[in-house]
Amino acid sequence: MDYEQRIQSVLNYIETHVQEDIPCESLVALAGFSKSHFLRVFEAYTGFTVMSYVRSRKLHLAAERLSYSNDKIADIAYDYGFESHDVFGRAFKRMYGITPENYRKRRFLLPTFHAVNLAQQQKGAVAMIKTKPHTMIVTKPAMKLIGIECRFEDGVSSPDLWKQYFDEWQQTFGNIAHLRVEPEKEIDYALTVDRDESGYTYFIGIEVTNVDHVPPGATARLIPKTKYARFTAIGPVGESIGRTYDYIFKEWFPYSSFQTAAGPIMEHYDMRCATHLGIPPDTQEMDIYIPIELVLTQTKEIIELQPYRAAYYKAAGRKGRKWQQVKKEAFDVMITWALSQGIDQSDLRIRAHNNGGATEEKFNYEVYMDVTGIDVGVKRL
Fold first, then answer.
1. Rounded distance, CA 277 to CA 284, Å?
2. Which end of the chain is more exposed for a tag (fewer CB within 10 A), N or C?
3. 110-158: per-residue pLDDT in tens?
4. In terms of C-beta density within 10 A (0-12 exposed, 13-18 middle, 19 or more buried), how is residue 105 classed?
5. What is the pLDDT of residues 172-212, one digit of tens each?
6. Long-range CB pairs of 107-111, under 8 A, 24+ apart, other chains included
7. Which tens digit of pLDDT belongs to each residue from 75-88?
8. What are phi and psi of 187, to 5 degrees?
9. String of DSSP letters for 128-196
10. Does residue 13 contact residue 340 with C-beta atoms inside 8 Å?
11. Alpha carbon distances (Å) from 118 to 27, 79, 121, 204
């Protein structure tokens, strides 16, 4: 199953369980990615954080029900997983700018939030990458940065942090300019940090030799030594950066042996994209650094294992990862997939094989589920 199919299976699952509590962990297991990778891939394909998407679908359907039914608002709130009338009311007003009560009275025309269908999106899509970004696997040493940051979540529009950064640069960073690493190159960094299912923190700043003196209103960020995939975006920065992120998550990762690792995504801006120096837009360049790690889990398949047909999944481990964690992953992924296929829990016929819980560098835990006579319809899960 490719990335698009995995994310579409998550979107379909959300749609069929939209009136239930949908923990992010169940979606992660269904997609078969690590959590850090899933959060970034889901946003790349849909344009939304996973929980803002779930919440927006719930509110859209709740708003429809408010308009065509006389059900109590509290009942509608509970039916779509909101813990109280007040919580629902706040979420509704944050999304639509009006309370559920006023909407029902006045029947304003609200913005729609339809379920995402990736196949339909692809029909109208055009090739956005004419020249593939130059890519290199690099390891950067530990870094110290000082900058300003803001938390963005729940689909709320962000303030123009870059404008604030440049407008207040002298006031905020003037007294520590001498601490800047390679000041002659005028390097600025933007980090996406502390990402979770609801949003992330965006940081803009400079690399410094020490963080002993952090100016008022600024924040220090310490980045450990990290392995990255570095992508060089070419062209007008405002356009090329979006195209490059699309390329990274929709073209490069699906065919690589890597996934994103925990840690900040880093954007590196220097003299190559300095508009104030007259760099022509078409020749501008900037770098995107994505923290990476090798994919440890392997592909789920339908295989012929005489005398029965089986769904197969192998969870792979490495030294330092507990064998019990690998075993749990194998069972959790297989069970979640089976339930997503509509297979009843009483029909979960799972058999397991492992290499004894070895502690060497590479080990694995394999599970097979008898699907003889069950139409799962595809070879790859």
1. 11
2. N
3. 888 999 998 877 654 444 555 678 899 999 999 999 999 999 886 555 6
4. exposed
5. 999 999 999 988 888 999 999 999 888 899 999 999 999 99
6. 107/67, 110/63
7. 999 999 898 899 99
8. -90, 130
9. --SSPPEEEEEEEPPEEEEEEEEEEETTPPPP-HHHHHHHTHHHHHGGGGGGBSSGGG--EEEEEES--
10. yes
11. 17, 27, 5, 32
CB 142 within 8 A of CB 225: yes
Is the backbone peptide bond immediately before 307 cis, with ω within 30 degrees of 0?
A: yes
Picking from 298, 313, 371, the residue whose alpha carbon sits closest to that of residue 341 is 371
- Give this prediction's pTM: 0.73
Could you tell me the two tokens for 19? Answer: 């009136």
Both tokens of 147, joined, read 């900058």
Tokens 């919580």, residue?
Answer: 87
In this structure, are residues 168 and 149 in contact, taking their beta carbons and an 8 Å threshold? no
In which residue are the tokens 């859209």 written? Answer: 60
Closest CA to 291 of 144, 138, 151: 138
How many other C-beta atoms can be found within 10 angstroms of the C-beta atom of residue 108?
13
Give the contacts of 204 (CB within 8 A, at least 6 positions apart): 147, 148, 149, 161, 162, 165, 188, 189, 190, 191
Q: Do residues 313 and 334 touch, judged by C-beta distance below 8 A?
A: yes
Which residues have a Cβ under 8 Å from the Cβ of 313 and sit 6 or more positions away?
A: 298, 300, 330, 333, 334, 337, 366, 367, 381
Task: Please give the span between the terminal C-alpha atoms of the chain, in angstroms, as a whole number.
Answer: 6
